[in-house]
Amino acid sequence: MSRVAVVTGSNKGIGFSIVKLLCQRFDGVVYLTSRDVERGKEAVKKLEELGLHPNFHQLDVAVRSSVEIFKHYLEENYGGIDILINNAAVVDAGFKTCSFDEAKRVIDINYRSILTMHELIYPIVRNGGRILNISSDCGHLSNIRNKFWIEKLSKQDLSVSDVNEFVEWFLESKKNGTFNVDDIANGASVAAYRVSKVAVSAVTMIHQKEYDNKNISINSMHPGLVRTDMTAGVGFYNVDEAAQTPVYIVLDAPQSLKGAYVWFDRKVIDWYDYNADYYFKMKTITG
Ligand SMILES: NC(=O)c1ccc[n+]([C@@H]2O[C@H](COP(=O)([O-])OP(=O)(O)OC[C@H]3O[C@@H](n4cnc5c(N)ncnc54)[C@H](OP(=O)(O)O)[C@@H]3O)[C@@H](O)[C@H]2O)c1
């Protein structure tokens, strides 16, 4: 049975380069997935021109039926998968403020999709498999300034319902107009994105604990500031450079690397260090 790697949101950006590098290095079938079939097929064509041969499947991580269809397809054709990189994400349309609807869109795509993947796809990850959530420096706990939530998210017995409560607290504050910019670092720029990515990194550690008795590693990472559409082309790294550490984590890192929050230089960072300087600063993009 073929080994299988899947990368979500990989028709462009960092995900596309992860697929490219996996096609070069992974001994198995690599799935480039995209919510839009045309954009996905165009991306596959680009890699074929380089002599690489990813497979393609439609996947919108925010649409449950799309994830279900892909799960059944993978089960029927391969019996399971070996590597899953949850890469798909969006950022707040306005960097300074965002409406409730926009905040919900960001939370649904970036965070709640991980819960859907956990429910439907994690159970078909084979023994020895690896799952990597592409988080962000916006996903470090130091992005949160509200004392109640710092304390709650730092609990050793943190549960998925605690993390859900955290995102609900944020969404409620957006809905009823009580959102306080002092609760999120850096004047609460890209607040929904920060909340979604903090939730992604928090839930990564919870999911790892759940899978501890299986030989599956689940980590999250910050890929660095990378020149993509998400950053309007601003960044210190190109997408091929940015793909190196994610691929290292799923192919080369020791299987004992579990529940970690990894920086783009491969260092494991203390996610709980809420006073640290790891949080994202808007001026790195705006100058
Ligand atoms: N670039 C950076 O500096 C940076 C820094 C920290 C973290 N990250 C993280 O790195 C990852 C990749 O970001 P990027 O910079 O490569 O962004 P990007 O160029 O904007 O690519 C994002 C990808 O996600 C896809 N996507 C969005 N919503 C989706 C959905 N519902 N279902 C499936 N795919 C969806 C997009 O597809 P469409 O083409 O259809 O929109 C696109 O393929 C993200 O998790 C991001 O948060 C990036």
From TrEMBL:
The keyword NADP applies. Coiled coil: none annotated. The keyword Aminoacyl-tRNA synthetase does not apply. Keywords: NADP, Oxidoreductase. GO terms for molecular function: carbonyl reductase (NADPH) activity. InterPro entries: NAD(P)-bd_dom_sf (IPR036291), SDR_fam (IPR002347). Pfam families: adh_short. Belongs to the short-chain dehydrogenases/reductases (SDR) family. This is Carbonyl reductase. It comes from Danaus plexippus plexippus. The lineage of its organism: Eukaryota, Metazoa, Ecdysozoa, Arthropoda, Hexapoda.
